[in-house]
């Protein structure tokens, strides 16, 4: 499965989780990805690790937009290592830009709203469940400069960071995500 960034940084106000999912869906379709993508965010109703059905999918390889390995398995994201990127490959946006090295993303963070195991944090650590850009509200973000997509940095919702999108279906139509 693929983990790809939206094409521009966003504040914590993404019109909720459905708005963030819509961004991922629209950008994936615009750039010709045939499968379904959802926002790689925790919310009131979902943990990050719940985006994909547990079990046999734990060992599916996670690729970037250029089909290079980011994680040997989904479990490598949620094993408590803060989603440490151990491969030398980068996270790309749907339009092919390297998030870590492109000036479009001046701050090298990704929104997630989870702890290092992919479990949701409370409302006050998810920009009011992704519906606030209030400078006094906060969310958990991952630090790409440290190569950790689930690090426990807590930053203000008014800032603009990368939104990651996770592919949740396969070409054969098998749905990986929870219904």
From TrEMBL:
In the UniProt record, the signal sequence range is none
- Domain called Collagenase NC10/endostatin: residue spans: 1-169
What stretch or stretches form a coiled coil here? none
Supply the InterPro entries for this chain. Answer: C-type_lectin-like/link_sf, Collagenase_NC10/endostatin, CTDL_fold
Any Pfam family matching the protein: Endostatin
Can you tell me where the transmembrane regions are? Answer: none
User: Can you say what this protein is called?
Assistant: Collagenase NC10/endostatin domain-containing protein
Organism of origin is Helobdella robusta
Gene it is expressed from: 20215779
């Amino acid at each position: 499965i693929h983990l790809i960034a939206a094409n521009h940084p966003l504040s914590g106000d993404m019109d909720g989780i459905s708005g963030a999912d819509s961004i991922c869906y629209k950008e994936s379709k615009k750039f010709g990805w045939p499968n379904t993508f959802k926002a790689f965010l925790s919310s009131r109703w979902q943990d990050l690790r719940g985006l994909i059905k547990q079990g046999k999918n734990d060992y599916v390889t996670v690729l970037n937009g250029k089909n290079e390995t980011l994680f040997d398995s989904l479990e490598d994201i949620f094993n408590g290592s803060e989603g440490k990127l151990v491969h030398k490959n980068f996270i790309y946006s749907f339009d092919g830009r390297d998030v870590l090295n492109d000036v479009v993303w001046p701050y090298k963070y990704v929104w997630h709203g989870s702890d290092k195991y992919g479990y949701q944090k409370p409302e006050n650590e998810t920009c009011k469940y992704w519906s606030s850009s209030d400078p006094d509200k906060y969310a958990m973000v991952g630090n790409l400069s440290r190569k950790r997509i689930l690090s426990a940095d807590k930053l203000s919702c008014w800032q603009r960071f990368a939104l990651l999108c996770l592919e949740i279906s396969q070409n054969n139509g098998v749905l990986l995500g929870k219904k």
